[in-house]
Amino acid sequence: MESNREITAYVNGKPIYRKLIENLPYNINLKSRARALRKAGVLSEVIFWLQVHKGIFWKIDFDRQRIIGNYIVDFYVKTLGLIIEIDGSSHDNKEEYDKKREEYLISLGLKLYRISDLRIKHDLNNVMKELEEYIVLEFGS
């Protein structure tokens, strides 16, 4: 184990190492849109938010409706450089746009984790366990 790597959290007793991406681009013109999206409260996003806000999920800090470049992502974990996207009907017929958006975000060094809207509504416990496993796999070694 490298001594210069900072542990940001422990998930199931396993250390999770910081992977902070510095100086992400930010389009200030999207600020009011991001605020409106937070207030609108899409059900699956609200359900997920209640599982992760205020450090409830392994003391990991999640941001909601975070602006990165010219995009607004559903959730962002700054200490891990991790984006969590909830895929619902708003993504229908937007495959090309979503692909371009995903490629851009990954090009910044960010990781992207997708969860289906329906799974959050109907299989939340397993969704949260799978997210734990993903974080341990990607950031635990």
UniProtKB/TrEMBL annotation:
GO MF entry, a single one:
endonuclease activity
List, alphabetically, the InterPro entries matched.
DUF559, Endonuclease_DUF559_bact, Restrct_endonuc-II-like
UniProt name for this protein: Very-short-patch-repair endonuclease
| Keyword tRNA processing listed | no
- Please tell me whether the keyword Endoplasmic reticulum is annotated for this protein: no
List UniProt keywords, sorted A-Z.
Answer: Endonuclease, Hydrolase, Nuclease
SUPFAM superfamilies linked: Restriction endonuclease-like
Q: Which Pfam families match?
A: DUF559
Domain named DUF559: which ranges?
A: 30-133
Lineage of source species: Bacteria, Pseudomonadati, Bacteroidota, Flavobacteriia, Flavobacteriales
Superkingdom of origin: Bacteria
